[in-house]
Amino acid sequence: MNSIYSFIEFIHSIKLKVFFILVLFSFKSFSQEKDLRFYMEKAQTNSPLLKDLSNQIKSNSIDSLLNKANYKPQILGNLNANYAPIINGYGYDSAITNGQSVAGLVGLNQKIIGKGIINSQAESFQLLKESLVLNKRIASKDVNKLITAQYITASGSAEQIGYNQKMAALLKDEATILKKLTQNSIYKQTDYLVFLTTIKQQEFQVLQLKQQYQNDLGMLNYLSGETDTTFVNLKKPDIALKTIQTDTKSVFVKQFEVDSLKIINQNKLIDNAYKPSLSLLGDAGYFSSLSYQASKNLGFSVGLGLSIPIYDGNQKSLQHQKNETALATNLAYKANFNKQYQQQLLMLHQKLKQAIEIENQLQTQLQIVDALIEANKKLLLTGDAQITDFVIAIGNVITINNTISQNKINTLQLINEINYWSSND
What we know:
By secondary structure, the chain is α+β, with helices and mostly antiparallel strands. The protein has nine helices and six strands. The strands form two sheets. Strands 2-3-5-6 form a four-stranded antiparallel sheet, with no helix packed on it. The chain has a two-stranded parallel sheet with strand order 1-4. The two termini are about 70 Å apart.
């Protein structure tokens, strides 16, 4: 009998060594510790979409400056020389061509624009900037939400590792006691083997959880735009419900409002395009046919240019109709969004309440199963406990704790989703 126990112990020790060697080679030590803010900042920095939107905002500012530059005088230098000979009576009419001409002129064109037109054009650039800023804020929220969701998943896996390792250690301690009781013939050898099988199953569960954590951590780095395979500890996620002031509009609603203002602004720009346009024209320099007093042909000229739209096939009215249709469509989308937005928040808060109720139920079950295990541990010492009942009780407490962990992850995911919709952060 003792030789059998020695053989079993020998096999058990070899398997434990192999197990821990695999763990050491598969996973690096948890020497580093990182928090949610670290991964958020990395993701924000590495996001190509956020960089693109930032560059679009800068580009819009440059476009606004280019538009203002059009209000300033446009000065252009021109140099022309022309010779039209008449050969044997053939050639251009000299009354038109003067035979030859030389011109070196500096021309000026100054548009005379009213404040209404200037303000409308400035408003269009400002609204485009607001739209881009809102898009960037929403994109930033999307990045934070995605990183937070994956961080919750990864930290949940880490938490399960800790608990299951404790259960594995507990089982090994009980196995030592059970071995002695089996050697004293208080329990059968088969009972001891059944218990060893449970230990192996728990060790395998820990290994799977560590592999899952490694994969979750790799995905977190991937989403953050980082190339990192370091095995690190994640700080417990500090995620709480955020509130938004009732007088503060959601960033999603603001997007619809800016779109409406952009359509209204387009109507102003259409009206401005049909207003008469006036320009101040002028030039100065040398302009001569070289046929009479060429040295005195220095001078200047000034003038006015007036453009008056008269008829274009009723395009102005059609463009306004098109914009009115776009405005109505935008308002319809906004109304529908508001309804779905409120309904979605109600559903999320309802799910959060359900998750809290489940947590309370699981904690009650855990108290009962923990008490049952403690009772079985005492009966185990006297040989009055059934090993199969003890194994079942341990399996139940492991299942309940893993379910509690999953429910915590689900609760944090719901809070992350609620914060995404209800907060402008």
